[in-house]
Amino acid sequence: MAKPWDYIAKVVNIGDSGCGKSSLTIRLCEGRFTPSHEVTIGVDFGSRIIPVSDDPPKKIKLQIWDTAGQESFRAITRGYFRGATGALLVFDVTRRETYEHAQSWLEELRSAADSNISIILVGNKADLVEPELGGRVERRKVTREEAEEWVQKNGVRAYVETSAKTGEKVEEAFVECAKEIYRNIVEGVYDMKDRSHGIKENTTKVSMGIDEQTRTKGGCC
To answer: Is the dihedral of CA 31, 180, 59, 200 positive or negative?
Structure first.
């Protein structure tokens, strides 16, 4: 029997309140959307096993820490950044101020987390940016081009536009983060014995079924 996962990594969702961080986690982990989801107080949790390599086959279990975005919880939220291996920095593409605040979130994250943390910038609520009423209303406040330029300028891994409501590219955002973490593992960036990196290898020995044991022994009688 193969291991269910090879590594487990801590990933934090950060950004202003109301950007859909919790909805992204729920969509990824439970495959559903709840429009009336309550505001996160402190931190919520989710997890998902993601394949990151076919040869050799490897999987990472993302332990997702969904943090509060309100200013009143900022000090508490900052404490959860320590030990994070990856992060989704989320803003709302229809609220420009949430994009502008991404810079301060990034600075706080990098001051508390490991220097090799894998960061994905996520523009959520992409389902709201299509022109309505025959093109007379445009709700987009942040262009894809300027977000991609921000990513390049700030040394962030990638920019992904998502919709927690429709599920569009939600999995892609988390997969991008997981694959960057795995690349760092392969390149020896992390000391796997140091828990402060927020990543742990599954060292459980794989047990073999009866058929596998028989094939391994070989021979006769």
So the answer is: negative
pLDDT at 140 (0 to 100)? 92
Q: What is the pTM of this model?
A: 0.86
CA nearest to 25, candidates 60, 68, 55: 68
Among 194, 179, 168, 218, smallest CA distance to 54 is for 179
- Tell me, yes or no, whether 166 lies in a domain: yes
3-state secondary structure of 88: strand
Confidence at residue 138, expressed as pLDDT on a 0 to 100 scale:
66
Q: Judge whether 56 lies within some domain.
A: yes
* 123 and 93 Cβ atoms separated by less than 8 Å: yes
Provide the domain count of the chain: 1
**More confident of the two residues 79 and 54:** 54
Question: String of b and e for 64-75 (b: at least 16 CB within 10 Å)?
Answer: bbbbbbeeebee
How far apart, in whole angstroms, are the C-alpha atoms of residue 108 and residue 154? 13
* CATH number, domain with residue 43: 3.40.50.300
CB atoms within 10 A of CB 56: 6
C-alpha distances (whole Å) from 180 to each of 53, 86, 115, 168 are 11, 9, 14, 20
- Domain of residue 121 covers 7-217
Q: Which helix (H) or strand (E) holds 13?
A: strand 7-14
Whether 36 maps to a domain, the answer reads: yes
